[in-house]
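This week, look over our next protein:
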Amino acid sequence: MDEGTIEELHAAIKAGRTTCAAVVEQYIDRVRVYNGVASLLVTEDGAPVQAARGAVRAMAALPFPTDTVKASTILPDLHKYQGPTLEYGRMEATASDPGVMQQYGMIVGKPDAGQLNALATLNIRGERSVTCRGDFDRHPSAGPLPLGAPPVCEMFRRLPDALERAADLDATHGRNPDLEKMPMYGVVFSFKDPFDTKDMRTTAGGDARYDIDFPPRDHVLVEQLRNKGAIIFAKAVNTEYNGRAGNPGGRHAPDQVLPSTLGYQRSTWGGNPANPYDTTRSASLGSSSGSGVSVSANLVMASLGEETRASCRGPANHNAVALILPHKSMLGFNGGAIGADIYCDRSGILCRTIADCARVLDALKDDVEGYYDPRDHYTTVPRSSVLGTPYASHAKTPGRPGALADMRIGVVRESMVRAPGSKTEEPIVTAAAREIKTILGGRLGATLVESSDPLWKRDPDVEAMTTDLRRALARLVPLIMPDVLFRLGRDGRPLFKEFAAAIVPTEFMPGKTFGTGTMQPIDYCVALAEGRIAPPANLDIATVQEQELAMAFRFHVPQYLSRRAADWKARGFTETLADFAALNARSKFWGDDGRAAFRNWEEVTDPR
């Protein structure tokens, strides 16, 4: 089933050309060949390091390269450096399992590695959990567990692994599965590690020593796919905690520093993935990199990722796979996962084709509850945008001339503007604008309607919208998210200078007061919403979407941990890693900046 689609998989099963078990075995074979370490340590002297073994993947311990790269070959003026102590690459034991080694500190992609490191955990008996590793995950038919096995392993080992699940599907349904009830029959999935999977280690990519390193229940989206015939196969490597969560500031600082953390989508437990087109390069922009790589390299057929700002779009783009990224209130995420920003985190579907993404989106919908997740309050929002017809039915269109003649399509120009003088975005924006006009408007016959922006030159051949997103933001931000107006820039000054100039001295953040005008902030908000004053020049999509550190991470982590501990308690087991202090005490981080940041997060008390 190399490069096969869901439709082709089902046709092959019905024709007797393959089975679910054969498909899973094929993916395991590919993982065994291509899912190894793709990075080298960057050391001060470039000397080899001792051979080390990592976690077991695809039934074999992961070998690490012994070669290293001398730091001065990457940083040619290193001998002139006089800053803080650099954190050179090294091998260390993990916090989760002292018998498992991992790369810490500086690393670099290995040229022509032949490896991708896309999947951190495989749903294979004996290796899918640290808590219940090896014989502690012995199949029930093989007799009692060994002495010393944690009691929870008796429950865990009764969950079939991916191979057993596939064999059970074959035995139960053979060549005639009910694809109406099981539209994901035999489809092999990976999941970004934060998604709770009851039969695999789940730590959001972190190296944290849980008492029980798998959750007691599935994320609602995982549950939907499992119920509809999917093979829950692997957890994908991701930037731990969906982008490391930033640093809120505080008294903790790193003892050693990295020259840069750019290019890493790195997990302390799982390592760093590589791009399948060039293993010296970053796997992608965005933390769901393992999801994108695993689909692109045919290590799985489909994957669920998570996006805070670009964590699904980047992996899809840079690994040449398809993506459907619904809005936040359509597909839940935070109900059974650790996110980076509870205000923005949302789930995305990565497959080889849009048609397959649409099939997965349809399968994620519960027959009774729809896309509702009782643990994610965002999914209670009314969703008039959810179609009453299957999305898969719209994924394939004939493309004949005039096929969209009765449709009006809005073009959001604000998302296509670029800063004056910037050439980076010019090629893709120019190409997109041309294709929108010639294909959607010219060939397919849709009526195009464009929004406006001061940085976008109006197209006289395209109808103009009666409003635009700048005006919409000016009306909505004062009412729904007035805190946006109080943001500070990287220089510690107000991001919206016109706002600060108009209002009386006001505390923007604890201990930071700005304002040189005469208006009360609330009166400014009313005037802005009613259009009586001009909005700040930079109150636009680009500014509002800029990654803003959300203090809600300090809320969401304890919420997730306490929920997980409570769920285990209800089942008669104890999980003591239930708050930020315990998480920090039982974790390691691939960079000391991560350790310092998480200590600062632990001490955050103000949610603003």
